[in-house]
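Support reply, case 0932

Customer input (verbatim):
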Amino acid sequence: MNIKALFTIFSTAIFMHVTAQQTNILWIVTDDQRPDALECYNLATRGEKESAFGYVSSPNINKLADEGVMFVNAYTNSPICGPL
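Our regenerated output:
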C-alpha cells in the first residue's frame, strides 16, 4: 500500500471520528414581538407570567425554553425589521 492511500484512509478515519462527536445545535428565534411578549421570558427576568402589556400564550416555546438554553440579554448592532 502506498503512502498516499494510507494517508487517505487515516484522514478519513480521523474525520469520521471527529464528526461523530460534534453536538447538534438547533437555534430557534421568534420574531416580530417584544421580548416580554413571551411568558418564558417574563418568568426568567421578572418572575411573573405577564408584563405590563400582557403576553402571548406559547406553551411550546415555554417548553423549549425550560429544556434548553434561553438568552435574556441579546443585542444587535443593526436591527432591521422589513425589506429594504
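We compared this against your earlier run and they match. Two observations from our side: Residues 3-20 form the longest helix (18 residues). The chain is about 40% helix and 0% strand. Please reopen the case if you see a mismatch on your end.
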